[in-house]
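The material for today's practical consists of a large collection of protein records. A record pairs a protein's sequence with a compact description of its fold. Instead of coordinates, the fold is spelled out as a row of discrete tokens. We will come back to this pairing of sequence and fold again and again. Here is such a record, shown just as it appears in the course material.
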Amino acid sequence: MNLLPDEIRRKLPNLCDQEKLGAEAIAYVKYFTPDSNWSWYATEFDGRDTFFGLVDGLEKELGYFSLLELKAARGPLGLPIERDLYWSPTTLRVISPDLFGEPDGDGTL
């Protein structure tokens, strides 16, 4: 599977471009292990190898992750990481309201 097709690569902002958006930053692509509960949501990309986004594994945290490492990694049953083909770009707040809080009715916290 092509983890980063050109159409998604073109949409991903450069590293730090969404930094000021905080929880309203958009995750343009989701990766997951089909044989475990890990997911990676990419909000930015350096154009070569490094993503920034939300990692949901043992803990939920914001951080950097590598395209090469995603390609090489295997889950507990030996299955490779996949790209969610049905993913629609979504804000971090929607993906993880437990981490970022849910907005009030007027859109504020």
